[in-house]
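Task: encode each sequence below as structure tokens.

Item 1
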Amino acid sequence: MPILLFLLDTSASMNQRTYLGTTYLDVAKGAVEVFMKLRARDPASRGDRYMLVTFDDPPYGVKAGWKENHATFMCELKNLQASGLTTLGHALRTAFDLLNLNRLVSGIDNYGQGRNPFFLEPSVIITITDGNKLTHSSGVPDELHLPLNSPLAGSELTKEPFRWDQRLFALVLRLPGAATPDNEQLGSVPTDESAITQMCEVTGGRSYCVRTQRMLNQCLESLVQKVQSGVVINFEKTGPDPPLLSRPVSSFGSQPWHSCHKLIYVRPNPKTGVPVGHWPIPESFWPDQNSPTLPPRTAHPVVRFSCVDCEPMVIDKLPFDKYELEPSPLTQFVLERKSPHMCWQVFVSSSAKQNDLGQPFGYLKASTTLTCVNLFVMPYNYPVLLPLLDDLFKVHKLKSNLKWRQAFEMYLKTMPPYYLLPLKKALRMMGAPNLIAETLDCGLSYSVISYLKKLSQQAKMESDRLIVSVGKKAPQETGIKVKNHSNSLSLAHRRDFKQLLQGITGEGPLRLVDMNFKEFAGFQIALLNKDVKPQAYRNAYDIPRRNLLDQLTRMRSNLLRTSQKLIRGQDEDYLHSIPVAQMGNYQEYLKMMPSPLREIDPDQPKRLHTFGNPFKQDKKGMMIDEADEFVAGPQNKKRVSSGDPNSGVTMKRRRSMSPLLRRPQTPPGSPNHVVVGKSPAGVQGQQNLLKPIPQHKEDPEADPTVQADLLSNVLCHSHRFKKRVLIQQLEIALAKVDEKHTASSQLPNDHGS
């Protein structure tokens, strides 16, 4: 998973205009977007992680880190503004600390246990700056210096702030402000001469001097090709030069291929997508169990190669690691020799117990097709181990004798102890799992092991703290503090302050007796709008000519204000002046608001944070109204005899209690209604008729039906009365209506009998 960290210069000098009509900061933002589009063409870009760091003071320089998604990255990139100093050293240190945040927690560096190229987090830092002078709060330094004091735990275990899988590239913008010349030169982009160039070369990267938009696009395409999974190694020649073959080469002086600072590609496994390896690159010291600390290592291991031709050694089933070298003068020299069947052994100084050069741990060999040079990493001192293992499997048939065991134990004593674990694993794969005793340890002292565990815990805490601080805005000044240079009391403490004030404003005679207008002890000019930066003018000549009248108006309003409000540092109109692009940014306004208090009643429905309607409630959490529930369905269901022909009518009447919805059915013997027929169709048709007007005037309070209608109407259209009392009254009225209808339906039957 490659990590792409963009370090953007946000100093004030990035506001200068180019011949394109845009600022340097706009060009930098566009370059980031173009790079991401070019990178997206590669299928391997799905696992990319993007980070954004600026030149702001720590910890506010990290805009997008380990937990931020792509949308947050693009939003922070769009909102960047150029203001401040060119603190390149502090910004680089912040970027490296951000990348090294989880390395101690995951154990990827494997301190004191050898360097594993297959344990890596390939990172590319792309810095976009204008290459101007470095500025700091203490002055203008001539050279680039990175702070040595890092808040990250375990940073003292590596001499440099970066690691061997982190490379720095710089796009130094040199675009002119006038029109670009037509005769633009094509070809390779030269390196820049700014202070960051040397830092790029140390990490294995380079800088680009960008003078036109076309060169910028060319550099971005080149940077996309640089995103490779690998680690940087220093290859240095040891011993004499190889014998001359065909091309005469001057042996006097140092050649470019004698020392190369290049990358070796660590290819991921096609099936799992994760690099797989077996053998480490040895440390440059012999582990001592009595040592309480670990010596600091260099970020890039120094691998020395001997130019003595040797036969490449390999046996069946013994695993080895193969890494391709980045094209360099060394690879060019090896390929020009055209000897793919010979190899050069590689060493790490002071890796053995007694020998200064150490024992070989692998070899450099050209490919059979002479297209590249590969580094083969084998077990430590493989010229001794491989013949022993070959004899064990082919001669002794896994039944070793005493002489073979003594030779094998002698080899184990000369091998660094951190090779025991990978050697056990390799022997298990070969079919000889019990050759090495389980009592042998890794060679680190107890104090070193406990110290590494403690560093891992501290790094985890620092990681959590830094992740929380990402995205926080720098606190703005609440006001302008007015310094006091004397011990005398301020003018505000004088008894005749009002008379003095009237003399200053011209309303009274001016009194210049022991007055010092520059002293205001304990005063602080408050700023109502926090977005407006204070203008602490100590000298009147510092005010620009175009702002003189405006500044004079502000000073007069601040001086003559007599209300209880805060002293304003700007005009009334300016307080409510907001750019159009920020008018709808309601989320930022919510972030600035204090956290709300908890609700007194937890059962109360929560209010939705909806822009434009803060009183909108969540309908899912609302309680059901009892009256609405009664209208929707009856609570008290009375049993009705199945033989009653009006039972279905009675139930339907109870389900719709509103006078507009209810259609009461009249019994056949009622004198107030004309019955057309007694068929069910006729009864059903009467439900859709309006309520007829009664023929005889009756007292409405005496009629239970009218009383029920009135109560139902009050219930549906008024909430001034208590709901439960109304429901009880309604039930009583309904009972009276049922009794009246029952009595009227029995009258014809009595006369007939």
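Item 2
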Amino acid sequence: MGSDEYLPLFETRRAKGRVQYRLLVVSVFVGICLIWIHRVSHIPRKGEDGRWGWIGLLGAELWFGLYWLLTQAHRWNPVYRSTFKDRLSQRYETDLPKVDIFVCTADPVIEPPVMVINTVLSVMSYDYPPEKLSVYLSDDGGSDLTYYALLEASHFAKHWLPFCKKFKVEPRSPAAYFNSSDDPLDANQSKELVLIKKLYEEMESRIENATKLARIPEEARSKHTGFSQWDSYSSQRDHGTILQIIIDGRDSNVTDKDGFVLPTLVYLAREKRPQHHHNFKAGAMNTLIRVSSEISNAPIILNVDCDMYSNNSDSVRDALCFFMDEEKGHDVAFVQFPQNFKNVTRNELYDAVLRVSSELEFHGLDGCGGPLYIGTGCFHRRDILCGRKFSKEYKGDWKSVKHIKREKSVLEFEEKLKGLASSTYDKNTQWGKEMGLLYGCPVEDVITGLSIQCRGWKSVYFNPLRKAFLGVAPNTLPDILLQHKRWSEGDLQIFFSRYSPAWYAYGKISLVLQMGYSAYCLWAPNSLATLYYSVIPSLYLLRGIPLFPQNSSPWFIPFAYVITAKHICGLAEFLWCGGTILGWWNSQRMWLYKRTSSYLFAFMDTILKLLGFAESGFVISTKIADQDVSQRYEKEIMEFGTSTPMFTILSTLALINLVCFVGVLIEALTGKGIMRVYETMSLQFVLCGILVLINLPLYEALFLRKDKGKLPSSLAAKSIVLALFACVGFTLLY
């Protein structure tokens, strides 16, 4: 093709309004600088009331201002991508590369087998040549129930894939499709739908019955020799490699009901031994990379979590538009799709979807070098993921990919490959260091993506109108706080590690991208400034000691401007990203809750790990909930339901602000001090009042609710004592 005939496979558009936004940023930063100047120049003298509170606020405002600067990297140059799949088909339909798809699961209780196979079936059903697709399920739970479910799914796939192809259904997760009523049905499709739905329900019933009984049916066990590999099984953390090629895509005799070949389907439970560290998900992914290189060796790898089913059958072709573009695709290492969820309430009770992050911030990162790798919904070039060095001369040759010759039987081949999944294979090798996903951090995906970018490669963020993947978001407050503790703890560990974006990435990626990474890595330290700001001004308000300028002072203007501009801009962003006003308010509540609980414990645990007093762990968020919890979630009623140190902190902080607000209100009304509060402490009063309003669901859980989602009475009593002790103690101190 001549260069003058070149038509790109994708286009990139820069966001409108960048100049206006940058002017706003400059004006807000001027206001922040004026706030800093006011704090430094008006520090109370020794012996004056409020001196230490004032100095503490100076430290908090310095942190908030500097952190706000880091977050502007996410908004400085957002770009938006679109693909031309018709051009891809015209040029490469007969030469499309093979794609390996990795699905990872780790616990059959938290991640039910039925959910796992729905994800597997959805990615097997991509609108892509089936002979070029291979799907690998990594089961770190080593469960025969998951294996049984996958066997059942392999039989159902012979009916499901032709149905999807014939009627072009979306989404291609059977459970999600049957629960939706988006597509109008003609008579023929309606008839076939009844049949395919009956087959699915029968399969689902068999799997769920086996799961409830925790036992594989004898008929299935005797029919499939693969179950014999569990004969020597000891426990989830102590077993040999279990590898089964369930569907061999090379076998022309294995076809769907219409006679077309099926994608390769492989089950893998890598070897686990108590004496050897298994490196969590990173270890599972690296094992899949090695094993798949001997079975299918596709140049493109997609990895998804087991709860993230495919919602868009064109996602593979979308990703290939970036990799296979003749002019701009050669330096693209990975294509990251957003992490979206199907079970989010209208007003996003827990802000689980991270709307602004997926609809704005990642587009901003894309404009300055590329987004983070977030561990799911990501397409990789295999060779780059395995450590290929960057070269401007690199050209992806999709036709020269090594094809695997298999001379042995499937059983012999499986036995040969088991060594690649042994628990000691990584030792004294470059795996986890220079090859594959990197080890040593709970958020191995982020450091892996950063290391790839530091080698000179680029990443791309693609956010299509029809979401590529939909997952299951936590639907209780304990789960969401625990999830964010793990994320923020891992991110902070990155910042203090050799892979810190502050020094490891210096000079290797753009400064703006460094700032963007650092903003995420420094989630946890936000807890200290937020904790201080949500307690100290309220306590000083109770004592009648002002910590902010009076309304009549010129210094009041920068405070009022920064606060107003930041929150109006935040609300506008949230609404522009498709949210609601109540959703934005919920996100503000979660902003407070995460920073004063999840991030606080993440910060403390990270410091303890750095000092050698603790070790890293990996916690899986639960994907199931009982009916009562689900009903409350759908009604957007916050789920507490237990007593944890996080809830003790949140409750105590909420009650401190309530006591301070009510105390000042009573004093102002009875002592005729309304004007004094208005003139000298209006910002403190408003801050305290907002903290009370934002905690209304927590007060309900403490005192008014009777359902199981309320906070326990013992925690309420403990929080009341702590709050009163703090208020009375502070009052006596002054």
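Check on item 2: The CA atoms of residues 222 and 228 lie 9 Å apart. The mean pLDDT is 92.
End of task.
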